[in-house]
Amino acid sequence: MASGGGIARLLIVALGAVVFAAIGVALFVVYPESLADLLGVLVALAVIVVGIRIAGNIAGSLFPGYDVAEVAVEGPITRDGGGGGLPSSPRGTPADDIVEQIDRADEDDNVDALLLKLNTPGGEVVPSDDIRLAAERFDGPTVAYTTDVCASGGYWIASGCDELWARDGSIVGSIGVIGSRVNANDLAEKVGLSYERFAAGEYKDAGTPLKELEEDEREYLQGLIDDYYETFVERVSDGRDLDSEFVRDTEARIYLGEEAYEMELVDHLGTRRELETELEDRLDRDEISVEEFEPDRPLMARVGTGAQQVAYAFGAGIAGLARDREFRLRT
């Protein structure tokens, strides 16, 4: 049985179709006798189609047909979707955009629950935590689900949701942090390059690729990794209600969905349809309607994204120049 809002939307669309049909016929068939009948009919049909779309948009604004928001986190997680020294991957996830979508869904009175689609190998630490915090802030049920990969930063995000769904063959886990640097000291010597230091602060250039890493610098950088790792373990143990030692014992392994479920790293195994059925029961609905939320971007930003994707396709695989400080942290 159609809901009151659904009936209202249909009435608005039907009324819009009739009104624009009348306008089209009057303007392009009846009134201008100099126009050929066929051309008039074609133009009238075009006006009708445009009118139906306009009426549909108006109806959608007045009577939204959704009650669940879906936000997708796909690809490597970074602050802006970029790839550091390399051309930006078009599949990267800009964390700020994801946070904006979740907050917008939270402010939407029609949204009663949030589906967070996770298909990511992880990424930067703080952007991952920003998305997790946004999921925690959402006022209503938050369900994370993955079909392929929910690893590292993706699992960090899932720890902020009420539950995590996966498929039997999903890759889940990798609760760990990694830091890396390129050691180009030997190469620099071979080509006649030398590193000359101008810095204030003993560890200001720790991790610079053009010089050998001193032991105390190695300990300093490893300490940063360890601190981030302890934060990761704390997020997972608190959010997933797991013992912290159990989380550490995973040693950043990845698991297939079935094993992850047995270890209680995942709450449910099932398809998207089964997830929606469960959510219908939770919300006490005969049927739910899911709306995919996407970032609000002005025209020039969308043009910029397209240019960025072209640049990536052209330049993928070309190494970037080493920066003055090249030590990266990621989950």
TrEMBL record:
Entry-linked InterPro entries: ClpP/crotonase-like_dom_sf, Pept_S49_SppA, Peptidase_S49, S49_SppA_C
SUPFAM superfamilies the record matches: ClpP/crotonase (SSF52096)
Domain Peptidase S49: 141-281
Keyword Transmembrane helix: yes
Membrane spanning stretches: 7-32, 38-56
Keywords from the named record: Hydrolase, Membrane, Protease, Serine protease, Transmembrane, Transmembrane helix
GO biological process: proteolysis
GO MF, any single term: serine-type peptidase activity
Family: Belongs to the peptidase S49 family.
NCBIfam families (UniProt xref): SppA_dom
Entry protein name: Signal peptide peptidase SppA
